[in-house]
Amino acid sequence: MLSHAKGFERGGAEMSVKVMVARAQLGTALDLFIRDRDPIAVHALACGGSEIVEGLAKHGDIPSVSTHILKTLPSIDYRKVKDLRNQFWNAFKHFHAPDRKTVRDDDALIADFTDAANDAVLFMGWLDYLMLTKRLPLEAQIFLAWWYDTNPQRMVGGEGVHIFPGIDKQPRWEQKRRLRRAVEKWRNNRKLLEDPRTERGPLSPRVDNHSEKSG
Questions:
Q1: What is the pLDDT of residue 158?
Q2: For residue 195, which of 145, 143, 138, 144 has the smallest C-alpha distance?
Q3: How many CB atoms are closer than 10 A to CB 39?
Q4: Is the confidence at residue 215, as pLDDT, over 80?
Q5: Residue-wise pLDDT tens digits, 134-182
């Protein structure tokens, strides 16, 4: 998993470890998301991984979603955009307000949280990961196509990529079902797996207890 990160001139081994950590969080988040598992866990992992890859991109002078936003809309207050993006994540991970004394009251905010809030966070995280490593797991490639087709209004010309035709008009449960079916259909496609732009290996890291030496 670390081999694709060794090209960074600044950061060395530490940079590789950070890529590994971000990849683990984004991969596990997407795995849970595809299988319709705990959306809060998905959000926390996706935000954590996204923050790391955004930082790595900035550190390595590599274009990212944030730099694209700032270049396209130079007058925008990106800090406010980031605060809005992280509002649920902050509610999930913090007990106290920024003063570290006042107990946060996030009940109303969390009541509005749904799985749909994970779409944009996963999209930004995996897009930054692609810019950083030049490769994506197959499941992440399918997810990005799914996101474009469920949000055609965000595309230039108002059209998606047409891998999931008509999906933007379908209910959420059907959109997620089609995502799962597409992953199952293409997961073992040899042509895609052999493409150098595809990152091989499990989406979510697995514990290899057999590699540990007994004391």
A1: 57
A2: 138
A3: 18
A4: no
A5: 999 999 999 999 999 998 887 666 565 789 999 999 999 999 999 999 9
Residues 58, 63: Cα–Cα separation, whole Å: 8
pLDDT at 3: 39
Mean pLDDT for 57-82 is 64
Residue bearing tokens 């530490």: 14
CB atoms within 10 A of CB 16: 18
Closest by CA to 56, choosing from 132, 122, 136, 134, is 132
Cα(160)–Cα(145) distance, integer angstroms: 8
Helix %, strand %, coil % of the chain (to 5): 65, 5, 35
Structure tokens at 45: 């992992």
Q: Is the dihedral of CA 35, 161, 45, 131 positive or negative?
A: positive
The sign of the torsion formed by the CA atoms of 135, 140, 146, 151 equals negative
